[in-house]
Amino acid sequence: MAYSYDVFISHCAADRPWVAEWFVPRLEAAGLTVAVGYRDFLPGAPLLDAIEQAVTASRHALVIVTPAWTADEWNAYEARLTHTFDPAARRRKLIPVRLRPCAPPDCLLPRAIADLVMADFTDERRWDAELSRLVRSLRPIIPPPAPDAHRPGLRRHRWLAWWLSYHRRRLLGGSAAALVLLLLISALVGWPTFPGWRSLGPPIRQAWRLHRAGDVLLVSTGTDAEGCAIAGEGLWRSTDDGRTWQTVNAPLRATASDQPCIAAAITDFAHAAATPQTIYAATTNVGLLRSDDGGNRWARIGQASLPAELTHVAVSPADGRLMWAAAARGGLFRSTDAGETWARVDEADACALGERSLPPGFTVGALLAGDNVVYVGSRPDNPRPGVYPGPDAGLYASADGGLCWRQVDSAEGRYGYADLEPVAGRLGQLLALLYNYQAVQDSYPYELWLLVPDQGRIRRVWASCSAAAGLFAGPGEATWSVATATGRVMTGRVDTSAAGSAAPCRSLLTTLAGHDTVGGTSLPAVRRCVLPPLCISDLAADGQGTAPLLLMGDRVYRLDRVPWPQALWP
Fold first, then answer.
1. What element of type H or E holds 180?
2. Cβ atoms 254, 268 nearer than 8 A
3. Which of 14, 119, 237, 534 has its CA 20 to 30 A from that of 528?
4. Contacts for 417 with CB less than 8 Å, ≥ 6 apart
């Protein structure tokens, strides 16, 4: 049977304020349709007929039991009429609601009501809880039909609210299944896409350094830690922006009197922008290498005058034959014939007023060659936390090719220089990536500074607990990018200071795991390494996009639009 109402409320006039102001609004807010005499009985209709029609059209009749209700004969009639429709109470047609205590002799309930379980509203503190229990019992097992013009008492919006509540489990289950299906389909077709890092080519084991020379990409690996067995995989080359990679047979093996074979790794690359086909590579154990065909074939050079262990190499942009190389055990060397012969420049002693020779045994942490000047930044001989740089530490500049120098920035007895880059579009400004050897738990060991040679360090633009492993100037004017060992690339502008503070670096573990950084914006992360110390990162210019390429773990990545699974789980 289709009902027009969920409930009909029988009450006395004395209880109308509670029924009209509290009870009925809450029943209707729960999605139930309610018939009540003072509102729904038509004026001029016979009262007996109105009561009978309301009881017949309602699924349940609620009797508001109070002493006043038992004294009203019309209420007794409504209760008896309702009882005749369900004499055994199998359909719970009649539901008593006790609003006030009702006990003999002042309150005599009909036997048909007294034998039923009542909803108890005598305690105002439990009204809301009892209302929830009552509403659950009033909702039918079978959903009612949708409202139409023949049932004006059932309001469409209330029927819809009830229907949604009744079918919520089915709706939630169906929605979840549809969402899973949509996610699976979108994952298969690669839609939608979000900013993320797309890997280029196959994995390269022990990838260490990334370098671009014109259209050629080079990746060196840590073969010196693996031995001569894989020294042939120490250099990889790509000529199609990283889509495919080939191993290069570079001379990364050497012999010694006490060892049958020594494996080397490439620590640094350099080339002149005007001649990208000529590339130089500094190595850990076999000195300097040179390629004249874009990194395809390599040969050792300068063996007679260069040490075997090198950390940096640089080429003058204005003169491709003028070069510098830094030794791992201290010392800076210069060549004026494209690397064939070398002379040590940290031992000169004839310089003009205001200049000096580079301190003997100067250990280079960063090397940068400009058009008419070369910069070297120091690092301790045995860099580790707690080792204080000496009095000669700092950043030095030379305008005569490296013979005489002037100190342009002091290390303050705390800083080591990890990398130097010219600020894009700002002549004479430098970016200096520093490591603070005196950093305590509440300060950052890795800092990026804007530096002007005539003024020294003028602004700290970034700081972090995460180990910084790569610096790139650009891609836009006065912008910078830093790669960290936790798989993140931070970007920002040199005009913005690293204001405020992030979480302090409490321990070595939290430093390796990485903390929030200040003074920059984080691009999507790449997390493909088990332990952060093994996640050596590097950056290089991208021939296709504006952001730099990222070397992370064992792959090269490009910032791109990637499918959502890759953006969520890189």
1. helix 168-189
2. no
3. 237
4. 365, 366, 377, 378, 379, 395, 411, 432, 433, 434
Give percent above pLDDT 90 in the chain. Answer: 38
* 8 A C-beta contact, residue 127 and residue 121: yes
Q: Name the most confidently modeled range: 247-261, 323-337, 353-367.
A: 323-337
Torsion over CA of 48, 49, 52 and 57, rounded to 10 degrees? -150
**CA angle 163–16–106, rounded 5-degree value:** 120
Half-sphere exposure of 71 (CA within 13 A, CB side): 12
Domains, the chain, ranges and CATH? 5-166 (3.40.50.10140)
Task: Give just the sign of the alpha carbon dihedral 569, 198, 526, 265.
Answer: positive
> Going edge to edge, which strands form the sheet with 299-301?
266-272, 275-283, 288-291, 299-301
The neighbour count for residue 475, using CB atoms within 10 Å, is: 16
Report which of 460, 456, 444 is spatially closest to residue 498, judged by C-alpha positions: 460
φ, ψ dihedrals at 206, nearest 5°: 60, 30
Q: How many CB atoms are closer than 10 A to CB 225?
A: 12
Rounded Cα distance, 138 and 162, in Å: 11
The CA dihedral of 288, 289, 290, 294, to the nearest 10 degrees, is -130
**Which residues sit opposite 460 in a β-bridge?**
449
Residue type, 455: Q
CA–CA dist 540, 545 (Å, integer): 11
As a whole number of angstroms, the distance between CA 524 and CA 488 comes to 7
Gap between the Cα atoms of 314 and 210, Å rounded: 15
Phi, psi of 408 (to 5 degrees): -105, -10
Contact 256, 227 (CB under 8 A): no
pLDDT in tens, 462-521: 998 888 888 999 878 899 999 988 778 889 999 887 765 555 675 544 444 455 567 788
Cα separations in angstroms, 66 against 39, 63, 106, 111, 115: 21, 9, 10, 15, 16
> Please, are residues 195 and 521 in contact by the beta-carbon 8 Å criterion?
no
DSSP string for residues in 13-81: GGGHHHIIIIIHHHHHHTT--EEEHHHHSPTTS-HHHHHHHHHHTEEEEEEEE-HHHHT-HHHHHHHHH
Phi, psi of 295 (to 5 degrees): 90, 10
- Cβ-count burial 492-530 (b if 16+ within 10 Å, e if not): bbbeeebeeeeeebeeeeebbebbebbbbeebbbbebbe
Report the distance separating Cα 109 and Cα 418, nearest Å: 92
What is the rounded average pLDDT for all residues in the chain?
A: 84
Contacts of 546 (CB under 8 A, 6+ apart): 475, 476
- Token look-up 């210069």 returns 334
* CA angle at 323 for the pair 320 and 328, rounded to the nearest 5°: 150
Question: How much is the CA Rg of the chain, to the nearest whole Å?
Answer: 41
